[in-house]
Request: fold
Amino acid sequence: MFAWPMEVEMETQAGFLITQIKQIGGRVFEKILQKENISEFNGAQGKILYVLWQHDHISIIELSRLTGLANTTLTSMLDRMEAAGLLRRLPDPGDRRKNLIALTGKAENLKESYDKVSAKMHEVYFKNFSTEEILAFEGYLRRVADNVKEEL
Reply:
């Protein structure tokens, strides 16, 4: 069982703050997309594209693991993205029962736009942070992410 360090109060707000950052950050991301006249994808789809730009031609199960999205949520999002010409489903050469998710040329061409929006989000998130603070914070977030993943 987890034992709270003496100096930490039981009434911390980390979970609430993480949720608030995610929700408000999503709205800010959408606002930046609009300001940059990027209409080919939305913030939620951007998360999927981000993973696919790093790991193209992956299974839905792997994409679910890497995005943190449930398979049911992911499937409907992939349907919309496929209809928009951002990705395609290809038969898995190793298992005909499975499909791999692959980016289209259209999606590959959007990476630069995404990177621009992502850089602006980085500026928003880390305004007035030092490099050391950013690295420490991201380390703590990775530890929290690993902790919650262990519970799945």
User: Anything to note?
Assistant: The radius of gyration is 18 Å. The mean pLDDT is 91.
